[in-house]
Amino acid sequence: MTEFTTLFEDDLRSINQTLERKTIQEILDWTFSVFPRVALLTSGQKAGSVLAKILFQAGKQMDLVFADTGVLFPETLETMEKICRTYSFSLKRYAPQLTMSEQTQKYGVLYLDRAGQEHCCHMRKVEPLFGIHSDYEVLLGPLRRGEGGRRSRVPIISLDATFKVARINPIAMISNERYQKYLEEPDTIINPLHAQGYPTIGCTRCTTPVRGDEPQRAGRWRHLAGVDYCGINPSDFARKKVSIDLPTAVVQRLHNSLAKLEEDTHDHS
Ligand code: SF4
Predict the structure, then answer these.
(1) Is any ligand 1 atom within 6 A of the Cβ of residue 72?
(2) 47-58 pLDDT, tens per residue?
């Protein structure tokens, strides 16, 4: 039987400080040396495409996982399928208990007001991932500090008490210029909706295109005032210090890796 040890967010402080001085490749090599079960969590948007390409170029293979709300754009699903075909990743979908029409029959159209939207996002985006910790210890994500707002301080590694996994954002520190270069490379697989006026993309019900003079996220929950994020990324919200239980062998490897990580650190600034 697997033994578990509690990992506290404070335990990550030194590791985060050291990772701040690492290249993306070094962050990825460290991640895969410490965590045996790693997945890429994406919603089929361009930042996820850039990270998927970086992972492929770094020689990493893994599952690409997503919460399939049942009302994603077909272009989003096709983009994720194409990424998996091209990079030999495996696509793994986590679905809500109810289809959208079953949910509507039971609760009505939820996403029309703020409380209903929170309920809907919880059932369709958050709950499906509750069991993900039995499949993976860490989820890679494409959050970047260059996005600004709440994401301007996103840590490289953090703990996710909701899904009981570690979250790593390997491209948190990528410069906007370098990120843009990846987007402009012709072989980067990008959701075609981005070229049709959708800077960010979620469910069909709650996403619209934006005008050139609007903020990038203006098309998300346009019908609701004050909703910016859905709750799937804990670092988007103010939160308390958290802890999670991980297999003891993983926690030990993580602690033991720090000395080597510091030893190998070069200044990449
Ligand atoms: S984005 Fe809209 S449709 Fe999608 S889960 Fe949230 S409230 Fe429901």
Answers:
(1) no
(2) 999 999 999 999
